[in-house]
Amino acid sequence: MKAEDRRELVLRAATRAFGERGYVGATTAEVAKAAGVSQPYVVRLFGTKEALFLAVLERALERLLAAFRAALAGASPADAACDTAELHGRLGTAYAELLADRGLLLSLMHGFILGSDPAIGARARAGFLEVYRLLREEAGFSAEEVHGFLAEGMLLNTLIGLRMAVDYEDPAAGELLDTALPTKLDFLLRLEGQRP
Amino acid sequence: MKAEDRRELVLRAATRAFGERGYVGATTAEVAKAAGVSQPYVVRLFGTKEALFLAVLERALERLLAAFRAALAGASPADAACDTAELHGRLGTAYAELLADRGLLLSLMHGFILGSDPAIGARARAGFLEVYRLLREEAGFSAEEVHGFLAEGMLLNTLIGLRMAVDYEDPAAGELLDTALPTKLDFLLRLEGQRP
DNA sequence: GTCTATAATCTGATAGAC
DNA sequence: GTCTATCAGATTATAGAC
After folding, report:
1. Measured from the CB, is B43 under 7 Å from any atom of strand C?
2. B55 with B28: CB under 8 angstroms?
3. Could you report the per-residue pLDDT of A70-80, keeping only the tens digit for each?
């Protein structure tokens, strides 16, 4: 197999591992095992664990921005249906669908709360602001609309990180999940193994 | 000094450390140094690093719930001023003021995204749901209102975790922070050392 | 391109003195 | 109550073979 393909394989495994246990908590050995390669080879491919995490962040941000742009492209040609409420819904759906790429949103989230780390923090801030600008400029949201949209996104990330779906039977948890993911709830419960 | 006092001192140092570098990233040696005690003593006081983190979560949740209840108590006796918009504002202010207890909100956030960890995840979910119930039952919010309030809270946590204030001069970052913290911006910028 | 072996470091935890 | 000394284990990274 070519190094390029291995790289992608390792990147995917790393995304899952970092999403579950965070940058420091996930180990290169764990990533290697999931990718079916040796631990030193993981390090060899990316240089350092930090570079691997940065590569995971990079790929996650690319996919996020691409998903948003695709959602916008699907909506733009239409005529009057392009109010911001409609866009909010489309972008929200695109965001929720990123859950299928396991660990992607959570790796981002882990990056976001490591702002004190010199390299990771800088990349995370820049990435967050790229998303902000896309919503503000390309989607045409107002500052308040972007704020509301990002807030919902961060709550979704948190609920995923919490594995709140495992408590779905709890009335409070059920109501919260129903409210936060009105359309994508089955999707989530299946992902989290709470449904057959 | 009595063990009780040391405990509180160490707990405070641990809250800061865990807030900055996360559960796995922060070390007991780091906490010990910040608290002015030896590393083995930190372990002895709490048993294990995990127990220390759980104690930090416990304390953070207690303070959060207490701050919300105090805000509600200050608002309840009034007559007509108690609509949910008013409460939303009061509770939001109470939440933002918790930023003064450094690391508190971020330690919580780190706990929230470690839902896969058996002990930490369970406590984090239960704590989050306690907050949910308080807002729903004691504050009288609707499911949608709680959802919106929590979403804003998670965005605030994320912006703090990102140290977004260090990029305040960036137009997008400035606008985002202005929108997310309309009233508490100076407070934040001073906390983050972006203001004299 | 990929592995095995291993070095170097860090870190949580224990033992035991004072 | 608190420290010093230290161990055992884990983890990133390197060296070098194939």
Report:
1. yes
2. no
3. 999 987 665 55
